[in-house]
Amino acid sequence: MSSSLAERLRAIVGEAYVVTDADVLDGRSVDYTGRYRGKASALVRPGSADEVAAVLRECRESGVCVTVQGGRTSLVAGTVPEHDDVLLSTERLTQVGDVDLVERRVRVGAGVTAAAVQRAAAAAGLLFGVDLAARDSATVGGMASTNAGGLRTVRYGNMGEQVLGLDIALPDGSVVHRHSQVRADNTGYDLASLFIGAEGTLGVITGLDLRLHPAPAHRVTAVCGFRELDALVTAGRALRDTESIAALELVDGRAATLAAEHLDIPVPTGEAWLLLIELAGETDLTERLAEALEDAELAGEPAVGVDGTAQQRLWQVRECTAEVVGLFGPPLKFDVSLPLSAIPSFAADSTALVAEHAPDAIPVLFGHIGEGNLHLNVLRCGAEQEAHLYAAMMNLIAAHGGNVSSEHGVGSRKRAYLSMARTEEDIAAMRTIKAAFDPTGYLNPAVLFD
């Protein structure tokens, strides 16, 4: 980056918010898993939508690539720069507006974390529908850009279903404000939805209107053990249609065992597969849970939590998996969406595939079983092993009817596999849209497309 561009950027955002220190840039150029690294020329932290737009305009005119960063929790190297990029961080866009209790919505900056939105909603007696284990780091702008799902998707849907309005800084330096105070607004193109899941390739989300939900008065949580994954999937298929379902999470028994050994987190059962279930509603749902599990092929009695402390203890079994998979160095991650019927065979075949390419590695499978959205993490897998295993695993996913990406996005790690899930015509249409918004291709150039 030229010194003149650096000066112009400082004039836009302030001296303190343009960083060119090599150590800082090095730390911001590695992905969340620690496996993938790039190189950046500057870190710029705008404080408003107009500043974001002005930064984009200057970079575009100077022919400098820009990589957008939020909480940097991408698991597909979506925030790793490849072209000595300017890193544009949304971390200062942290305004949280007043909660509208009547319309059940709140306007926030793109750099606000999921946890901060949850706190604002809870203080108003409401609930934000998307929850992630990375809630303290993941920002809502990034979550919208990847259409994140998370732990409560089975009840509330993905991030896109929570977005009522957006502010977007476009690649040409203009700002689009797409908001409506009414619930039914079918005026023209649904432009805002185009940026949901676009992974920052079409523009930078700077602000969001988010839908909030009534907080249920009662919850009941259970962790059930299963000897066979087929039995768990059958139970999950029945439970996801239960009216009061709030969460339905698969946990690999191997992860639970590692959590007990290394993190001192109690495991309710020693079975090969665990299913975390949560029901939520306006009445006590303990009996409904028992009825829902009557026909399930459980291995022993489920562990049930009715009060908050017991529920939190059971949730630890699921939420600690992110920490568990990092115990052996950066894990190799696969975000996979599968038909429910294919999950048991994929689990067996993927385990065999890992053993073939990386005999010392440990495969750990967990995720959102209600949607068939699973996260396969391969522990103790070196770079040389990854080179052969990654392509083989992606082919296996396709062979089981799976998709390239479920909620983590394509990023740069999966861009070579886009054709597994999209036809040539589909990809060409997406490229046409990209070219219309960003004809020089300078914004998030490493993401989505080869």
Walk me through what this model shows.
- This protein is of the alpha+beta class.
- It has 4 domains: 3-89, 2-Layer Sandwich (Uridine Diphospho-n-acetylenolpyruvylglucosamine Reductase, domain 2), CATH 3.30.43.10; 105-214, Uridine Diphospho-n-acetylenolpyruvylglucosamine Reductase, domain 3; 218-323, Alpha-Beta Plaits, CATH 3.30.70.2190; 328-408, Alpha-Beta Plaits (2-Layer Sandwich), CATH 3.30.70.2740.
- The chain is 32% helix and 21% strand.
- It is built from 15 helices and 16 strands.
- A 7-stranded antiparallel beta sheet has the order 13-10-12-11-15-16-14, with helices on both faces.
- The longest helix has 17 residues, at 383-399.
- It is globular, with a radius of gyration of 22 Å.
In one word, what is the shape? Answer: globular
Q: How would you write the strand order of the largest sheet? A: 13-10-12-11-15-16-14
Named at the architecture level, the CATH assignment of the largest domain is: 2-Layer Sandwich
Work out the helicity level. Answer: 25-40%
List the helices and strands and how they pair.
Layout: H1 3-13, E1 18-19, H2 22-28, E2 40-44, H3 49-62, E3 66-69, E4 85-89, E5 105-109, H4 114-123, E6 126-128, H5 140-145, H6 153-156, E7 163-169, E8 175-178, H7 191-194, E9 204-214, E10 218-226, H8 229-239, E11 245-252, H9 253-262, E12 273-281, H10 286-292, E13 303-305, H11 308-319, H12 321-324, E14 332-337, H13 343-357, E15 362-368, E16 373-379, H14 383-399, H15 424-437
Parallel strand pairs: 2-4, 3-4
Antiparallel strand pairs: 1-2, 5-9, 6-9, 7-8, 7-9, 10-12, 10-13, 11-12, 11-15, 14-16, 15-16
Helix pairs in contact: 1-3, 13-14
Keywords: FAD, Flavoprotein, Oxidoreductase
Family: Belongs to the FAD-binding oxidoreductase/transferase type 4 family.
InterPro entries: FAD-bd_oxidored_4_C (IPR004113), FAD-bd_PCMH (IPR016166), FAD-bd_PCMH-like_sf (IPR036318), FAD-bd_PCMH_sub1 (IPR016167), FAD-bd_PCMH_sub2 (IPR016169), FAD-linked_Oxase-like_C (IPR016164), FAD-oxidored/transferase_4 (IPR051264), Oxid_FAD_bind_N (IPR006094)
